[in-house]
Amino acid sequence: MLKKNIVKIILDISMAITFVLLMNPRVFNGLPFHEVAGLVIGVAVLVHIGLNYQWVVHTVKKIFDRSFSGKTRFSFLLNVLLLLSMTGIIVTGILISKVVFPHLLGGENHALREIHDVFSKLTLLLVGVHIALHWQWIMGVFRKMLKTKEGKWRKGAVVAFVFVLAMFIGSMQWLATNVKPDEAFQPKFEQKVAQASGTFSPPEKFRERRHEEHHGNSHPLLVILGHFTFWAVVIVAVYYIEKRMRHKRQVRV
């Protein structure tokens, strides 16, 4: 069971990191990474559902059972909403694709792009709530991974965890330094501006400022930190709301 939970944790962390990197389409080499990673995370979602297949089947069968807690019902509803929002992201992403499926619409579609952004932001919030509801389980798995039954630290596991974390941070920094956005996929508006400007091109600082206004800083570590901070706020808020509701139920009983 622990090995299966470790696989789930690794998959979930990988999905979370990939998803927040997708929130900024300028990360790494821009649209090529954004679109390919988007399809990969779609497959990862199916694997995630497969690993939790028994829970899904059991919950569907017992969803109207009065013995089921409100938290379980809410968690199931949240998962359904997450699946729908992720589906919305993938479908709209495919329709507005410029790299993997460049000829589906054959031009710009600002309405679909706006819908894609709305689904992305909604999913970011829903994922934060999803993590909050499973926070105790996540911490429990990490405790079993890093500590023995007697409560002592597993030195080998701790060293391995620190090593993997250091390697991850180092690789993100290396990629941010050496992998530049592919200018062939820059927005058409910017291409036209560059062509019209001819001999005159805006100062480098101006171009960077214009990009940051639309998508923020594209450094992967900063993108991850920013969105994980948002999730941390959601987790704390949901934790205290759930704790207060649980206290009220105990008082009533």
UniProtKB/TrEMBL annotation:
Superkingdom, natural source: Bacteria
Swiss-Prot/TrEMBL keywords: Membrane, Transmembrane, Transmembrane helix
Transmembrane segments: 7-24, 36-55, 76-98, 118-135, 156-176, 221-241
Gene Ontology annotations for the cellular component aspect, listed alphabetically: membrane
Entry's Gene Ontology BP terms: respiratory electron transport chain
Domain (Flavinylation-associated cytochrome): residue spans on this chain: 78-135
Xref: Pfam families: DUF4405 (PF14358)
UniProt name for this protein: Uncharacterized conserved membrane protein
Gene source species: Anoxybacillus flavithermus (strain DSM 21510 / WK1)
Taxonomic lineage of the native organism: Bacteria, Bacillati, Bacillota, Bacilli, Bacillales
